[in-house]
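Researcher: We are triaging several targets before committing to wet-lab work. For this one, the compound of interest is 2-acetamido-2-deoxy-beta-D-glucopyranose. I'm pasting the protein sequence and the ligand SMILES. What I need is the predicted three-dimensional arrangement of the protein with the ligand bound, expressed as structure tokens, so it can go straight into our comparison scripts without reformatting.
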Amino acid sequence: MRNGLLSYAFATAVALLLPSGATAARPCGGSSGGEFQYRLGDVRYDGPDPSKNNDLATIAASLQSSSQTPLYECVGQWPEVWTGWYEGGSNLVWGDCIFTGAGTGQDETVSFAVDWENKTMYLAHTFACSDQQGSQGLATGSIKLDVNCTTADDSSYCVPKTTSSGTRPNLNIATKLVPVPANTTSTCAAASKQYQSWKVEQWQRRFKMEPGASPTNPKLSADTGPSFTLTSTANGNTFSCLPSEGHEGIFVGSCKASDASTTTADFVFDSHLNMLKISEHWKCDDSPTLDIAGVGYMQAACERVFNSDEFTCTSGAVWVGTGVV
Ligand SMILES: *[C@@H]1O[C@H](CO)[C@@H](O)[C@H](O)[C@H]1NC(C)=O
Ligand SMILES: *[C@@H]1O[C@H](CO)[C@@H](O)[C@H](O)[C@H]1NC(C)=O
Ligand SMILES: *[C@@H]1O[C@H](CO)[C@@H](O)[C@H](O)[C@H]1NC(C)=O
């Protein structure tokens, strides 16, 4: 989505300038019945750009407020053959939806994923519960997209089909609160039935870029790889994650639990694709181990340090989920 990426970059800049108008709270019990809704604005899938020679597909969508201004801009990118699934396997690639600063957001994080094979978009958002102080809600939902694809000059793009009267379709994604178990569990059988996801926070990465290198073909050196904190939304475990040395842009790292944890975690970050794979390993009472993985496309913003060839990249909190929700 070439135009969309521009507006996305603009939206990000605006979001940084404005103090967040987000109240970031929703009722988790009672009145809404744990059901929410987002209206989809523009949605666009772009096949690989032949001039870039990278085979990356890009999907972008905007989520609108009730007054129909774009509230969040969602962007994801992956090798086209993955069709939205990490390495074409069973993990959806989750991408961050970034708050535009226009209006009032009620969520702390919003993420989306697309199963392009099935043309299904998934959405997940987290928020503070306005009716239960100190607790967090997670709501998930999906929508099936009926798209119209156009191919021209070796490139293709798809947008939602117009209605029979030629107008834009009304697209709403209904989401529902994911129930949180009253007790954390120590059995793998119970843990595997829970929906697992994480919040990635305090993302930081530094590298040097050779002057004159183009953004599409950057020449990076002294790349630290990412460090970040990880919080499991299923069991509340927190980790601090540090990379080991990278090999050809791939960083493998381990995560240190902040207290006596029943699980361990590690990660792989592919800096070419900006793909973060998180794995959490459970040691349970009833079976030897349970390994759960989730994948996020990290669109961290990188900024040149004043008068230096060094860049620092940071990101707001990003929610990374596991499979289909
Ligand atoms: C995708 O669609 C196929 C065929 O309709 C279905 O069998 C499959 O379960 C779907 N996959 C997901 C992840 O929903
Ligand atoms: C599909 O796209 C073509 C080309 O942009 C357009 O002329 C046509 O009206 C679209 N059809 C639908 C159903 O959206
Ligand atoms: C949670 O644990 C308490 C104490 O062990 C127990 O009484 C209660 O029934 C459990 N609740 C659920 C939903 O399992």
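Researcher: Any quick observations?
Model: The domain at 5-177 is CATH 2.40.350.20 (AOC barrel-like).
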